[in-house]
Every structure is written in structure tokens, then in C-alpha cells.
Write a structure and sequence with these properties.
907 residues, alpha+beta, Alpha-Beta Plaits, Alpha-D-Glucose-1,6-Bisphosphate, Chain A, domain 4, paz domain, eleven-stranded mixed sheet, 37 strands, RNaseH-like_sf, RNaseH_sf, RNA binding
Length: 907
């Protein structure tokens, strides 16, 4: 395997990371830092490495022979066995799979050890089933001189640096993994303060640690650094298994659990909601009566599955043996009788049995217990997610205290493995010089927000006229007041009051309105037909197809919302605006102004543009026809197999980059790189519309902001997506050769800023830029906090320039990125990420409503139908155990007869 297949940039912390590689010859770090704005001192949650191992470190290949398919858990048991550990010294580090390291060289460079796990664990031999051989073979030495040479610019990256980083990663986590519960790069201690999320799930905080190669920002230049942050983990709450089953199935009493179990048994047990809920449980401990703890620790067993029989329905032969082990008697008994007579545990009828992986043993739920720190891997429901956000959000001071607590947990100063190998980490965090970039002024057709006000991260638009208003006066428009079965969610007077105010305020913002809308009560139970009702009645009243339809809904019913959007956009091609009745009843001016911004954008207008110092940075920038493209690919939640990945592409439509069209479609199953078909079909449409707006010419430059790709996929973005875009331009115009600048955006990282001078919550001020301390040692990347955090600690966005054919300076890219965050169409605050990407996120989420599946009549009826299926033991999703996942179909296309594709329909 060559370097291009093994390396995932410079953050190698798991086996998957070794399958990708950096791209050679990416744009280099700028020769000088940004000088715009003012300087600010910033503390980072990174800790630089002071000393590297000086002793030779020997690397070994580890192979375990035995069963045909040996699981990783068994490999670890073999490695930790007494037979193996007696042959090795304490300096050995094992990655849990194939590699090991030691300061000592084995005699003859290899060793083979026989391991009998039955004998190790005090069990009777199982005819060789648990007998293994482990072969440990020397494969080479870790060469730290190459890493030092790379950091000092004396040699290029090669495989030896990959191997060194992989070793250092395992060295860093060896000691913590022995003390704490490890989840990838995070560690969680027992006994921490826990926060209930409901449904038998709890959250608590741990520590995240990751090794990175960075530019230190000091005279020492590039170095190795450890990024330490708070980790928020979700776990099952420690309790008896029967109580956990009650929590997972949302039953109030044990009797309700029995009723639910009996109902599930009547259908297909393995497809029932109850079985699916219980599948999340993986480990249990046996009741202390049957297996007392050893040294205060209960032995854990792995759950194979839950059976659809109870303890009274399963029988077995109970044998009695004499002192010589000979069978003296055998009787048939139920599991319930055995546990009552042998252990004094009374089993209730109608509760599922648990089959353990250990010899297929069947145990009643009353005899089992859920241990502490068992990870919860299932997607949180809406209520749990809301609780998790409350738990995870912390202000900067509190977060920094948690980082310090994490450093104390890692305890580098006394870590025996770090000390033994000679790795020394600074206990002090990195401190760097950042910049606060000049704040632009959000500018309207009439009026503007001064830079001082804008720099606070919040402003009002009272009396401001939008930069451009709706392209056609609003004449044919309707309001659907939804009746969900309890009557209309607002009365006629409330509706008239709100829309009278709406017309007044929209006109003050420059909106063109000819009169009041048509209003009608519609019934949610009619589902898609309620959209037909309001479409027809509005069109008939105004003798013109509706330009927009408002829906006033009683609550946040996601299914009803998706139904509305799907019918409006795919069936009728009309934009819509959904509002909750509580907001309509209050009719507050600020809320109405916010609605006006969205409506204006959907009707072809734009809110404002950011006017800053960009012309001073590059006087010619605005004179060259330039297109900005944003893209994102979103994926279904873990475990959801019948929902495809969603590709969303946005494209600027004007010279000021205030209006973006967006199109979406499915992109295979968990495929991150946008397909050639999607680029040709989606982007080509928008490019042709851009050309119509620019007198038929092709852009000279394209700035492509791409979100959501890991460093190992940078090459794929260039070799596939950008190559496909260039090919598309050649199809449109064979002479077209626009230059590309490609910038990757990422928010899923653990870097945080703790500035000396921040806002009132001690968060960084909008425009805070960091170019050292946590950035790549040699490539062109930076971190930018463009927004003012509403809650918690601000998360800066990481931007990495992977192609710069346009030759833009770092100051231009950074200032452009920052200023555009102030012209997000539906907000009176700067947004955290470049708008083209933010819009792609919005479009991707909205386009989920265009899923090409048979629709149901209404959100309410859909919920009822699904509940009926579940009660009958049915399934709401494809099961991979039953059949292969069908090819993901494309989305239902939008009806473009009214030109909806040329609007910001997704805003």
C-alpha cells in the first residue's frame, strides 16, 4: 500500500485514517500573516510537544491464528492473556488489531505463543475452540529523525512519518485507555456528574485528545501539538435490565412492558419496534446473587439477542453431577423454575429472555443489570437532542475549566508510557497572535448598519429598505390557516391583524404588495389536498397562479411541514412560508421583519450587501466576472440505510453575491464526493442562469467553497468534482477555461479560541482570525470566528485552500470570507460559515421533503398509520437483515413552470 492510500492528512488516530493521503503541492502557507484589523492575544486548547522519543522504537506485526473469523475483542483477549504478557515486558503498546511497539528487540525478531482462553479464564476446555496462536514479528524501527526533518523543512513527507504519527497516537492513549472508558479519541471516567436525557439515556463529559502537526506560531516553527477539548458522551443509565426495557419502550410500568412484549410477539418479532429498541443494548452484568463481583468489579457479558419467549416457555435439562463429574440425574425444568429454586429470583411471565454470546446461555431479564458507561449509539430523539444541547452548551470560562480537567485526567506528567518512551508535552496551552478583521457595513437600498454596531454581531433593520425588492408586485397570494382537528389554530381577526401588519412592514422595507391575501381554513387531515384547496381558491380569487402561499400551523409537526413543502415545490412549483400560530398571534414587528426577509428572498429580492475594505485589499476583484459555488453532501443518521446521501449545490446569481440559486439530489448511499451526473445536471442549470444574468458570458473565475470533506478526500474533490466542473464549462463553451480557487470549510473540529479581549461572554469577537498555533505547518489554512455566539463557546470555522489558480492573496480570501458572512439573506447577524455553504445546508435539509416515495395524506394520519404498523409488529424502514438496500432513487423534481429554481426557495 503506497502513501496515497494510507495517509489521512496529519491527524492519524484510527485505522480508517490510514487509508487516505495528503495531496502533494497544495497551496503553501502565505509568506506573511494577515495585517488587516487589529492584533489580539488568543489562548488555544492545544498543547505543544516539547521532547520526542530518543530511544529506538521497534515496530511489530501481530497475527492471531485460530478461528476462521477472529473478532477484534478476541484478539485483545489473546494479547492481554497471561501467556502473552509473561513473555513481554511492560513497555509494549498494542493497537488492538495488527501493530505493536516496544523499546526492546525480540530474540530472533519474532515469537509465537500458544494461548488457551478457556484455561486463562478458569473454564473447562471447549475442544480447542478457544485455543489460539499469536505470532509477533519485527517489521522495522520508528524513525523520529524523518519527522524532525519534515517539521524543519529538510525532507518531504513519506511513509516513515505516517508510521511515526501512528505510533505517537497509540502512545498518547495507552495509559488513558487503561483507566477510562474509551470512545475513539475520547475518554470518560466513571463517577462523573451525569445528566439524564430521558429514555434510559444519560450524558456526561469526558476529554478529547488528538495529535496534530501544526505551525507553532513561534520562532520554533512547525511542531507536534495535542488538541484537548471537552467530549460529550451518551450512555445508558446504570439500572436493572427490566427497568431499562421499560425506559427504552417508553412504558410506564412493568405490566405495560409485558403488554408491549405480547403485542410484539404476535407479529414479526425481529421487525418490531420493541426488538429494535432493545438491540441498542450490548452488555450486561449478571445479578450479584449468581455471580458476585471480583475485586469490586462485576464481569460483563455480551448480549447476542433478545428472544421472543419468556422464562416459562423455555426448558432445559438440569443435570446433577457427583464429585467425579459423572451425571447422576437429569430433569427437565423451565428457566423460571431454575432461577427461583437456585438463586431465589422470581421471574414474571411475559418478559423476553436474553441470549448471551457465551455459549448461547439464556437468562431472564430480572437477573441482569446494565453496567455504568455502556455507550448509547442510537440517534437521539427530538426531546433527547434538546436536552443534550442544554447539557453540552457551556460558556468559555466553563469550557476552559473542563479542558483543564481533561488535561488533569490525561495526566501527561506521570504517564508511565510517555515517560518510558521519552515524549514530553507542555502543560501550558499555546498562545498566539490573532487578528480581528475590519467589520463591513451591511448596506441596504436605503440605510446601512455602521461598522461599530455590526461588530457587536447583532443589528436591527427598522426603516431599512431591502437592497432589491420582489421582482413582481405581490398580487396573487394566499394564507392557509391549518385546522389540525381542534379547530383553526388562529381566528380570522388574528389572521387579518398579522397580515395587515405584514403588508405595512414589508412596504417599509421596499416590498411591492397590491393588496391583502386570500385567507382560508384548511384541514390537516386532507394532507396534500389541503394544498390543492388553497392553491385553487387563491388562483380563482386573483385569476392568476399564486406567487406565494403562507401556512399558519399550530405546532412543529415535521411531517406536516414536509408535506406542505413537497406539494408546493414539486407539485405546484410555488414558494411557501410556514409560520407557527403563536408567533402570528403576537404579531411582533421584529418577527414580521424576519419573515419579510425570507419572503423577499423567495420572491426574487435580496436583503443587503456587505461593504467593507475588500476594494482596498484588491481593487480589481469586482471588475472580473466571478462566480461563487457552495456545496455540501449530507448523510442519513447512523443505522438509517434506506435514506440516501443528499448533494446540495448553490451558485451565486449576481455580481454582489447576495443571491444564490440552489439545487439538490440524492448522491448514492453515504457517498461524499458529488457525482458527475449531479454536477452536470444541477450545476449546469445554474451556470446557464448565471450566464443569462451576465449577458451570456462564462465567468473568468470560480470560487468553490466545499463543506464536509475530510483531509483525505481533498484529492477526490480536485480530481473529480473540480474536474467535472471544468468539463461542464467546456461543454457550455469549448473556449471557456475559468480559473478555480477551492476552499474547504469544516466545523467538525475541536479547536476553540479563548481571547484576552472578547465579548461579554468572553467569546471571540466577530472577525477573529487565527493563522498559527493550530493550523497546518506548511499549507494554506486558517480558522475564522465570523459570528457572535448566541450560546456556549463559539466554534470557529476551519478554511483550507486546496487550489488557488486565481492567485488570490490570503488577505483577500480571508476578508472576502468574513465580509460575506454579513450578507446572509435571512438574518440580522453575521453567520458562522460562508453563506454559499450555509445555503447548501439549508437546501439539503429542505430537499429531504422531495423524497421520491409515496406520500401519505397528512402528518397526523401518517403518524397513526405508522403506529398501527408498529403495533402489528411491522417495520417503518428497510431492514438489512431481510433484503439488500434498493438503489437510492433521485428526488422528485421541482415544478419549474413558475421559475422556482431561480429563487431562494430554500431560505
Amino acid at each position: 500500500m503506497d502513501i496515497q492510500e494510507k495517509w489521512k492528512h496529519f491527524d492519524l488516530l484510527d485505522a480508517k485514517s490510514r487509508k487516505a493521503s495528503p495531496i502533494q503541492n497544495l497551496p503553501p502557507r502565505p509568506s506573511k500573516s494577515n495585517s488587516l484589523g487589529k492584533e489580539v492575544n488568543i489562548r488555544l486548547n492545544t498543547f505543544h510537544v516539547l521532547e520526542y522519543p530518543s530511544k529506538p522504537v521497534h515496530q511489530y506485526d501481530v497475527t492471531v491464528f485460530g478461528q476462521s473469523d477472529i473478532k477484534r475483542m478476541v484478539i485483545e483477549k489473546v494479547w492481554k492473556s497471561k501467556a502473552v504478557q509473561d513473555k513481554l515486558d511492560r513497555s509494549w503498546i498494542f493497537d488492538g488489531n495488527k501493530l505493536a511497539w516496544s523499546l526492546n528487540r525480540l530474540p530472533n525478531d519474532q515469537i509465537v505463543i500458544n494461548v488457551d482462553l478457556d484455561m486463562e479464564e478458569g473454564r473447562q476446555r471447549s475442544s480447542g475452540r478457544n485455543t489460539f496462536k499469536i505470532a509477533i514479528k519485527f517489521v522495522g524501527d520508528i524513525d523520529f529523525s524523518t519527522l524532525r526533518g519534515y517539521l524543519t523543512g529538510k525532507c518531504a513527507f513519506d511513509v516513515s512519518i505516517l508510521e511515526t504519527m501512528s505510533f505517537l497516537d497509540h502512545l498518547l492513549r495507552e495509559a488513558p485507555s487503561r483507566k477510562y472508558t474509551q470512545i475513539k479519541k475520547s475518554f470518560f471516567a466513571r463517577g462523573q456528574n451525569r445528566f439524564s436525557l430521558g429514555g434510559g439515556v444519560e450524558a456526561f463529559k469526558g476529554v478529547f485528545a488528538s495529535a496534530r502537526l501544526v505551525h507553532s506560531g513561534m520562532s520554533t516553527g512547525p511542531c507536534l501539538s495535542i488538541n484537548v477539548d471537552v467530549a460529550n458522551g451518551t450512555f445508558f443509565t446504570e439500572m436493572d435490565l427490566i427497568d431499562m426495557i421499560r425506559e427504552l419502550t417508553r412504558c410506564r410500568t412493568r405490566e405495560d412492558v409485558i403488554t408491549a412484549f405480547q403485542r410484539a410477539k404476535q407479529g414479526d418479532w425481529h421487525k418490531s419496534p420493541m426488538y429494535k429498541a432493545l438491540k441498542a443494548l450490548t452488555h450486561v452484568t449478571v445479578h450479584k446473587k449468581t455471580m458476585p463481583p471480583v475485586n469490586g468489579v462485576f464481569k460483563e457479558f455480551k448480549i447476542h439477542r433478545f428472544q421472543n419467549k419468556d422464562a416459562y416457555e423455555r426448558t432445559f435439562n438440569l443435570q446433577t453431577r457427583d464429585a467425579n463429574g459423572e451425571v447422576t440425574s437429569s430433569i427437565t425444568t423451565t428457566i423460571a423454575e431454575y432461577f427461583r429454586n437456585r438463586w431465589g429470583i422470581n421471574c414474571a411471565r411475559g418478559l423476553p429472555l436474553v441470549e448471551l454470546t457465551k455459549k448461547g446461555e439464556l437468562v431472564p431479564v430480572e437477573a441482569l443489570h446494565i453496567p455504568q458507561n455502556q455507550r448509547y449509539k442510537v440517534k437521539l430523539d427530538d426531546k433527547q437532542t434538546s436536552q443534550m444541547i442544554k447539557f453540552a452548551v457551556t460558556l468559555p470560562d466553563e469550557r476552559w475549566a473542563a479542558v483543564n480537567h481533561g488535561v488533569a485526567m490525561l495526566d501527561w506528567q506521570t504517564d508511565p508510557y510517555l515517560k518510558n518512551y521519552g515524549l514530553k508535552i507542555s502543560p501550558n496551552p499555546a498562545e498566539v497572535k490573532g487578528r480581528i478583521l475590519p467589520t463591513p457595513e451591511p448596506t441596504f437600498a436605503v440605510g446601512k448598519i455602521d461598522a461599530r454596531t455590526a461588530s457587536t454581531g447583532r443589528w436591527r433593520i427598522d426603516g431599512k429598505k431591502f437592497l432589491t425588492n420582489n421582482t413582481r408586485p405581490l398580487k396573487s397570494w394566499g394564507v392557509a390557516i391549518v385546522n389540525s382537528g381542534r379547530g383553526a389554530c388562529i381566528n380570522q381577526g388574528q389572521a387579518e391583524n398579522f397580515f395587515t401588519q405584514f403588508c405595512k412592514i414589508y412596504r417599509t422595507h421596499g416590498g411591492q404588495i397590491e393588496g391583502m391575501p386570500h385567507m382560508q381554513v384548511v384541514n390537516l387531515v386532507r394532507g396534500g389536498e389541503m394544498i390543492t384547496d388553497i392553491w385553487n381558491s387563491t388562483g380563482n380569487k386573483f385569476q392568476a397562479k399564486p406567487q406565494i402561499i403562507f401556512f399558519v400551523v399550530p405546532d412543529r409537526n415535521a411531517e406536516a411541514y414536509m408535506r406542505i413543502k413537497k406539494s408546493c415545490e414539486c407539485r405546484y412549483g410555488v414558494v411557501s412560508q410556514v409560520m407557527q400560530s403563536a408567533h402570528v398571534q403576537k404579531a411582533q414587528d421584529q418577527y414580521i421583519s424576519n419573515v419579510c426577509m425570507k419572503v423577499n428572498a423567495k420572491l426574487g429580492g435580496t436583503t443587503s450587501m456587505a461593504v467593507g475594505c475588500l476594494p482596498k485589499v484588491d481593487k480589481t476583484f469586482a471588475t472580473v466576472p466571478t462566480m461563487i459555488i457552495g456545496a455540501d453532501v449530507s448523510h442519513a443518521a447512523p443505522g438509517v440505510m434506506d435514506q440516501g446521501s443528499m448533494a446540495a449545490i448553490t451558485c451565486s446569481m449576481d455580481a454582489k453575491f447576495t443571491k444564490y440559486n440552489a439545487l439538490c439530489d440524492t448522491n448514492g448511499n453515504r457517498v461524499e464526493i458529488i457525482s458527475t451526473q449531479n454536477i452536470q445536471r444541477l450545476l449546469k442549470k445554474m451556470v446557464e442562469q448565471w450566464m443569462n444574468n451576465f449577458r451570456g458570458r462564462v465567468p473568468d473565475r470560480v470560487i468553490y467553497y466545499r463543506d464536509g470533506v475530510s483531509a483525505g478526500q481533498y484529492a477526490h474533490v480536485l480530481d473529480q468534482e473540480v474536474a467535472d466542473m471544468k468539463a461542464m464549462f467546456r461543454v457550455i463553451n469549448p473556449a471557456a477555461q475559468p480559473k478555480f480557487t477551492v476552499i474547504i470549510c469544516a466545523k467538525r473540529h475541536h479547536i476553540r479560541f479563548f481571547p484576552q479581549q472578547g465579548d461579554r461572554n468572553k467569546n471571540p469577537l466577530p472577525g477573529t482570525l487565527v493563522e498559527t498555533g493550530c493550523t497546518h505547518p506548511f499549507e494554506f489554512d486558517f480558522y475564522l470566528a465570523a459570528h457572535s455566539a448566541i450560546k456556549g463557546t463559539a466554534r470557529p470555522v476551519h478554511y483550507h485552500v486546496i487550489l488557488n489558480e486565481c492567485g488570490f492573496s490570503s488577505e483577500l480570501i480571508q476578508q472576502l470570507t468574513f465580509e460575506h458572512c454579513f450578507q446572509y439573506a435571512r438574518s440580522t447577524t453575521p453567520v458562522s460559515m460562508f453563506p454559499a455553504v450555509y445555503y447548501a445546508h439549508l437546501a439539503s435539509n429542505r430537499a429531504k421533503a422531495h423524497d421520491n416515495k409515496p406520500a401519505v395524506s397528512s402528518g397526523k394520519k401518517e403518524t397513526a398509520e405508522r403506529r398501527d404498523r408498529e403495533q402489528q409488529g411491522g417495520s417503518t424502514a428497510l431492514s438489512t437483515s431481510d433484503k439488500d438496500i434498493a438503489e437510492i432513487p433521485p428526488l422528485m423534481p421541482m415544478n419549474n413552470s413558475l421559475g422556482i429554481e431561480n429563487t431562494m426557495w430554500y431560505i
